[in-house]
Write a structure and sequence with these properties.
By secondary structure, the protein is α/β, with parallel strands linked by helices. It has a single domain, classed as Spore Coat Polysaccharide Biosynthesis Protein SpsA, Chain A (Alpha-Beta Complex), CATH 3.90.550. The chain is built from seven helices and 17 strands. The longest helix is centred in the middle third of the chain and has 11 residues.
């Protein structure tokens, strides 16, 4: 992958040698841009069928860095976990604004009353399971709310204060205005069967240390800019096997810049009796894989879609400032190299041979 940098962006106090390329180390101290301008491209076009939801008008957000959304079906087992998500995702307003996609109006009304943005689920797939299609969630969020970044995370995930500082840095960085970007998170599994109920004074570091970091290579969230080509993605759904590594492989294949933020954000997966791999035992568990087979759109190996394949990462320097850096070779796993993915049946014909790319770090 290559990241091309544009020197025309007028950012305050960013050194002249600051570069955002895969071939060079990127070290950008957090600064405030003197102006915000988001480039238009074919990637940012929306499907015509995605009209503004009924009784919702386009909202002009001020100081918003991320529209963070999720969706779930209410269950007794998950009630405390969902309450934690409902409460904790509001900790970072106005910078991070939570959005709930509802299939059940009662759930939607409850989330709206609690202070969340809400939209109805506009498209479902996966047979009779009728699970929200992640592509449409992103397109609908972009249609209805203005933000430099949009992100999905599972409905049992929460974050520490690092999400605020990381999103502030990224939303003000020129890299998200230059080309498609996908931001990835790595979770720590923590047993929340018996709580606790989270609040602003909760010690997230202490809670995280009770759990175990997930090292299977998958990301539990995907944050992208408006240039990311969501509209070409098939009807893959949330909460079923095969979504995470396929999306990362797709991002790499379309030459998006991948950024891991695991070193600046503590991500807690609140598990219950269902365990850490609920998607492996649900109805229509392989519906996403059936789509990949239909479109003949598999990466060379699933290792091509590991979170470790992100070539850039956020970290704190010795002064505590967030910086964006290129990963060292030993931080990228062997499976990230020599990858390809056939997208001939996914991308428009105008892509030609580009729809069957070879990609590496």
């Amino acid at each position: 992958m290559r990241t091309e940098s544009k020197s025309s962006e007028d950012l305050q106090h960013i050194p002249a040698r600051t570069e955002s390329a895969e071939n060079r180390t990127v070290e950008v101290i957090q600064r405030v841009p003197t102006r915000t301008k988001y480039n238009e491209s074919r990637f940012s076009e929306k499907k015509d069928l995605h009209q503004t939801a009924t009784n919702h008008k386009i909202h002009k957000q001020e100081k918003t860095g991320l529209i963070l959304f999720t969706s779930w079906v209410d269950t007794k087992e998950k009630s405390l976990v969902h309450m934690n998500v409902m409460n904790s995702w509001k900790f970072w307003k106005l910078l991070v604004k939570p959005l709930f996609f509802y299939s059940n109006k009662t759930t939607g009304d409850r989330m709206k009353k609690s202070g969340w943005l809400t939209l109805p689920v506009s498209n479902t797939a996966c047979g009779t399971s009728k699970i929200p299609v992640i592509r449409d969630m992103f397109l609908d969020a972009m249609k209805n709310y203005d933000s430099p970044l949009y992100g999905y995370a599972n409905g049992d995930i929460t974050f520490d204060e690092g999400i605020s500082t990381s999103i502030k840095f990224l939303s003000e960085n020129a890299i998200i205005r230059e080309k498609p970007v996908m931001i990835l998170i790595r979770r720590t599994n923590v047993d929340f069967t018996n709580g606790p109920l989270l609040n602003r004074s909760s010690n997230f570091t202490e809670i995280r240390l009770r759990g175990k970091v997930l090292n299977d290579g998958s990301s539990d969230g995907f944050f992208t800019n408006t240039l990311f080509p969501w509209k070409y993605i098939p009807d893959i759904v949330i909460g079923r096997m095969g979504i995470a590594m396929w999306l990362v492989s797709y991002a790499r294949a379309v030459n998006a810049t991948l950024i891991e933020i695991s070193k600046t954000v503590q991500v807690i997966h609140m598990t219950t009796k269902s365990g850490n791999y609920e998607s492996h035992s649900t109805q229509n568990v392989y519906c996403n894989h059936e789509l990949y087979k239909k479109f003949n759109a598999y990466p060379t190996t699933w290792g091509c879609g590991h979170i470790h394949c992100a070539s850039l990462e956020l970290k704190a320097d010795k002064n505590g400032n967030i910086i964006l850096k290129k990963k060292s070779k030993n931080e990228i796993t062997e499976g990230c190299y020599n990858c390809s993915m056939n997208l001939m049946n996914v991308l428009p014909k105008s892509y030609g041979k580009q729809a069957y790319p070879d990609f590496t770090v």
